[in-house]
Amino acid sequence: MSSCRKVLLTLTLMAVAGLAGAQGSAKYPGVGRDATPKEVAAWDIDVRPDFKGLPAGSGTVAKGQDVWEAKCAQCHGIFGESNEVFNPLIGGTSADDIKTGRVAKLKDPEGGRTTFMKVATLSTVWDYINRAMPWTAPKSLTTDEVYSVTAFLLNLAGVVPDNFTLSNKNMGEVQARMPNRNGMQTRHDMWPGNEFGGTKKPDTANVACMKNCSTEPTVASFLPDFARDAHGNLLEQNRTVGPQRGADTSKPEGKAGSPGAATAAPMVVAQATTDAKTTGAKPDAAATDGKAALALANKNGCMVCHGLGNKIVGPALTDIAKKYPGKADYLAGKIKSGGSGLWGPIPMPPQTLSDADARTIAAWLASGAAK
Amino acid sequence: MKQQDITSGRVQKAPENFLSKDGIKTVFAEARGGRRDFIRSAFAAVAAGAAAPLAMAQGNPVPPEGGDPFILELPEHAKGLGLGVATDGYGKPSKFESNVQRRQSPGLTQTTQASVSFAPLQSLFGIVTPSGLHFERHHQGWWDIDPSKHRFMVNGMVKAAKVFTMDEIMRLPSVSRFHFIECGANTAAEWGNVAVPTVQYTHGMISCSEFTGVPLITLLELAGADLKNGKFVLAEGGEGSSMTRTIPMSLILSGEVIVAYGQNGEMLRPENGYPLRLVVPGVQGVSWVKYLRRVEVGDKPYATKDEAIHYIDLQPDGMHRQYTNLQECKSVVTTPSGGQVLLDKGFYNITGLAWSGKGKIRKVDVSVDGGRNWRPARLETPVMSKALSRFNIDWVWDGKPALIQSRATDDTGFVQPTYKQLRAVRGTRSIYHNNAIQSWLVQENGEIKNVQLS
User: Fold this and answer.
1) Partner-chain contact B244 A312, CB within 8 Å
2) Cβ A206–B365 below 8 Å, yes or no?
3) Does A26 touch chain B (CB under 8 A)?
């Protein structure tokens, strides 16, 4: 398009929309334009603790339970208690906490923490479910579904009764019953401004002593021997050249008094491994298929609930492969239709991936789920 | 020269002149492959020979043959023709560097989409993190977003809500600045006790880059923002989690907060928010919202999920500290460090990183006796505000156990605390903002362990 025509077109568009004065600014002419009310409404979805931004709507605990079991329970558990995929949402709060607004269990040094033990602001729960849930299909819930699910969670936490209807009109009353509503403080120096009336004084005050400082260099904590290779072989996590090598944690530790002896030879092995990777044999066709199928499984969210070799919520993919060798059609159908009861209590919802993807993944599973 | 041009004459052509381009490549590849096998076996022999007499700290002893085969026998690369330009349109590290990778900590998270990968600090030099090794933190998976379809909106307490295309943002006056980004949960696993083996896992949720972009204040002014009453700005991402965080207006007014598209001379990497992310110097990484789609000017904070459920610091009395944004002064020795083995006694350069969310690093002291005596390290230049600083100090290892620590002081005079001091006020369940002094134990066998003292 010639620049003349572009200018003309812009002028025409501006005239049509009546936006002539809204293009750019005096300082930066031509940069940025006014957002339309429709555009702002599409994106401005946040809800503040004072409920500014909260849309009108309502939902019951009962409706929330339906939505929950269909769309949320597979990750969070039927009662929001599961820690298999995410931290538990529900548990650890009491009727007394609802009175005091402080969750007593947070003082327990051994205790875990659930979302409802921590969160002080009801708006946070509503806003987050609305913007980011469900995990694999964020922003797909209707406003009333968000109210419903929030009501269901509040019910599980004992904040509202079974027959409760949550709406934009009573969020404030429910806020006054949040178990940890008085559990936050901002008396610290880690906010850059003065807005929260914090302090400017750090809470620790070390001094830079240089000689004969009082300290007790006793080793009080270290990794136990059995955890030596818990993060893989550290030899392979360090450069193969330089003043030091990674420790070969696939072997027991080297003897005292022989620095480097345990590493010098393995270093060469590590290099050999690297070379084998770059110059090694051509990948065979089956391996490529495995990679492609695994990528598909990842892309379609299967790996959220199924580990390749480990159970998450659903069974390990390799366990499925073991149970259904050669049954590609059956597995493709199962992927599309979902199911429950075969592997555990948590149902797998029907999956919306394409038939072709489902068939590829099923064929790969039926042939052994090799990497 | 074309092949038909040299058909006459008596000079024998070199064999490769009879081969096609692909054939030449194969010959070269095979030659190199064979050479590597030779190097491997030679090196194994040297290593085996050296393992016995460790008497003197000589890292590179003269072999019995009277000379180093790598010197005496010229390698292929000294006697042949190397590769041409643009073999790889976007160059990659040497294949010998394949151990240098960002990594997940096993068992830390159940999903890879709400997870972290740690930068390999033990293998990095200077203060800039290569973009491909930058630590990752995703809340609902990462995306590679088409920049021509990405929009940025300013709304809230403004005269007129505005939208910008990437083209428009990149037309505005830009700044380029070096800053560190550290996850608030960096070193979280170590609050109670030692939990992970290496500096990659203890401190690897930090990276430092040169960021290029437009000061956020410029975009707020373009929208006619109420800079007096609008004390808070909500930043929101455009991906599934639509990540939201409250940003202090005071920091935006200082001009430090940048709407960035550039990182280390190229565009942001997709894992780091391509095409647009917020840069909030000194503040924990979660506020550096990726895939930035919107900022909203408001008069109250937002208590978003990641400032009301996560990224809140549990104190011993059961209260949570909320809006703990700043990353306090901290340092760590990156080599020698946990999970490494010193090859021999003798001279070493102890090196590490120091940073402060409140300004510049003033000094770093290093101890090799567990904190009884300290020596000031050399601070390498440039030393920049809210950026990583590199320190180095000479050390001769005598083969006896040593406890290596570093202790940073920033230009507010704040001194990095010990674990004892930090736990005395915050307990051990805070998760976030662990800036304690790190200890590495060098054992007599040369292997280095992550330890905590008491």
Assistant:
1) no
2) no
3) no
> Choosing among B341, B397, B411, which should be mutated to test the A contact, i.e. which has the most A CBs within 10 A?
B341
Q: Which CATH number fits domain A58-175: 1.10.3980.10, 1.10.8.60, 3.40.190.120, 1.10.760.10?
A: 1.10.760.10
Asked if A119 and B447 come within 8 Å (Cβ–Cβ), the reply is no
Task: Write down the ipTM of this complex.
Answer: 0.85
Q: Report the C-alpha gap between B257 and B251 in whole angstroms.
A: 7
CA separation for the pair A166, A16 (Å, rounded): 44
- Interface contact B334, partner A, CB < 8 A: no
A58-175 and A285-366 share one fold: yes
**pLDDT averaged per 10 residues in sequence order, chain B, 454 residues:** 35 35 46 38 33 50 89 94 94 97 91 94 98 96 97 98 98 98 97 96 98 98 97 97 96 97 98 98 98 98 97 96 98 98 95 98 97 97 98 97 97 97 96 98 96 90
A46/B342 CB distance under 8 A: no
Entry pTM: 0.81
User: By the 8 A CB rule, do A85 and A75 touch?
Assistant: yes
**How far, in Å, CA of A252 to CA of B184, rounded?**
35
Contacts with B448 from chain A: Cβ below 8 Å: 244, 247
pLDDT tens column, A138-187: 999 999 999 999 999 999 999 999 999 999 999 999 999 999 999 999 99
Report the b/e string of B362-377 with b at 16+ CB within 10 A. bbbbbbbebbbebeeb
| Cβ within 8 Å of residue A3, ≥6 positions away | none
Contact: B110, A85; criterion CB under 8 Å: yes
Q: Report the DSSP beta bridge partners of residue B211.
A: B177, B263
Top CATH class, A285-366:
mainly alpha
Distance (Å) from the C-alpha of residue B5 to the closest C-alpha of chain A? 36
The domain ranges of chain A are 3-34, 58-175, 285-366
> What residue of A is the nearest CA neighbor of B319?
A183
Does B342 sit within 8 Å of A259, measured CB to CB? yes
Q: Which domains does chain B have, with CATH numbers?
A: 3-52+60-80 (no CATH), 115-321 (3.90.420.10), 330-451 (2.60.40.650)
